[in-house]
Specification:
Largest sheet: 7 strands, mixed
Distance between the termini: 11 Å
Number of strands: 7
Structural class: alpha/beta
Number of helices: 6
Helix content: 25-40%
Strand content: 15-25%
Shape: globular
Radius of gyration: 17 Å
């Protein structure tokens, strides 16, 4: 089955392809000739995932899934949450600036509890059906925030986030372990089970 993953983030694309293996042909926005930066205008992860999936489905008429991920820090009332990628302002996706702002906001606060949450919206065109099917899958991994960056693999907040049950950050654990236990892996696992 060919399915579009509504992203041009090569890190996410590689991660999803590794998690799903070769069961599906996963293509990116670039692969289908979509170079639009689909605006994420919702104030929820669910809303943003659905906006991206709907854009591709409505314009390219292909089976598609999209995700949105947020880091939710307890002491910051769930921030940065839906704004995780652009927490430090600007156009977003400046991981170092985002991590610096997070550490500054937390300061010496001893409550370092946090969780990563991924929501995937899937839109499938079922043969003979008038309307497409829309499904949602969620993955959550609990953990905590370090006081300084540690490790050099992964992306985003990986150098700061230690998943529960581990003593090292996602960036120290490496992609093989991360791709088995992460929020995205949990959500993609649910997606994969459903597609079977």
């Amino acid at each position: 089955m060919k399915i579009v993953f509504a992203t041009n983030n090569n890190n996410k694309l590689r991660e999803i392809r590794e998690i799903l293996g070769n069961k599906y042909e996963i293509v990116s926005l670039k692969d289908i000739g979509c170079d639009v930066d689909i605006p994420e205008t919702s104030d929820t992860l669910e809303g943003n995932a659905l906006i991206k999936a709907k854009y591709v489905y409505d314009n390219y008429h292909m089976n598609v899934f999209a995700d949105d991920t947020g880091l939710e820090v307890e002491a910051l009332n769930g921030a940065p949450g839906v704004y995780s990628a652009r927490y430090a302002g600007g156009d977003g996706h400046d991981s170092d600036a985002n991590m610096a702002k997070l550490l500054m906001k937390l300061g010496e606060n001893n409550n370092r509890n946090a969780r990563f949450r991924t929501v995937i919206a899937l839109i499938l065109n079922k043969e003979g059906s008038e309307k497409p099917e829309i499904h949602e899958f969620e993955g959550i991994v609990e953990g905590s925030i370090l006081k300084e960056k540690s490790g050099n693999t992964g992306f985003g907040y990986d150098p700061l986030f230690v998943p529960k049950g581990y003593n090292e950050s996602f960036a120290q654990l490496g992609e093989e372990i991360k791709n088995k236990i992460s929020h995205r892996a949990i959500a993609v696992g649910k997606l994969s089970e459903f597609l079977k």
